[in-house]
Specification:
single chain; 3-stranded parallel β-sheet; 7 helices; 46% helix
């Protein structure tokens, strides 16, 4: 999924500055994915793009959280708290938090096949007030859920 999203971004460079982030260890066999990972990083380098460190993602007004091969990733909660608009791929839920936040209220969902991704980004760029409202709601909700009180009752 992450690779397909990167390809969509690369083919819509007028609105995307798509870069992959390196991920940590996953529960799945990373050796089987290594060739795909290396191939995508090579293709991005050919486009003049280096991989992006997670903390460097936070400089962007909009970030994409594509479902990957890791379960229990904490990336989604960190992105929602970072005051950046998060586009999250639909499909499997990777954390408990995805069950507690609402699409179009705390994040923007996109199709698992990413066919609507370019359209959504263009739409959101034209509606900055909507994006700001979603970001504010995300920070409020996730701060509440991840507070000591929220963790007791989540």
């Amino acid at each position: 999924m992450r690779f397909h999203v990167a390809e969509v971004g690369n083919s819509n460079s007028d609105v995307f500055d798509t870069k992959l982030t390196k991920t940590g260890p996953c529960m799945y066999d990373m050796a089987s994915m290594q060739n795909r990972v290396n191939d995508m990083f090579r293709r991005q380098e050919l486009l003049g793009k280096q991989y992006l460190k997670f903390e460097d993602m936070l400089q962007y007004k909009l970030v994409i959280d594509a479902n990957g091969d890791c379960k229990n990733s904490q990336r989604f909660s960190k992105l929602l708290l970072a005051e950046t608009l998060v586009l999250k791929s639909s499909g499997h839920s990777s954390t408990f938090l995805t069950r507690l936040v609402e699409p179009w209220k705390q994040y923007v969902p996109f199709d698992e096949n990413a066919d609507d991704l370019a359209y959504l980004v263009r739409k959101l760029l034209l509606k900055p007030m909507l994006a700001e409202k979603i970001v504010k709601s995300a920070v409020e909700k996730v701060s509440e859920v991840l507070s000591p009180h929220g963790m007791l009752y989540a």
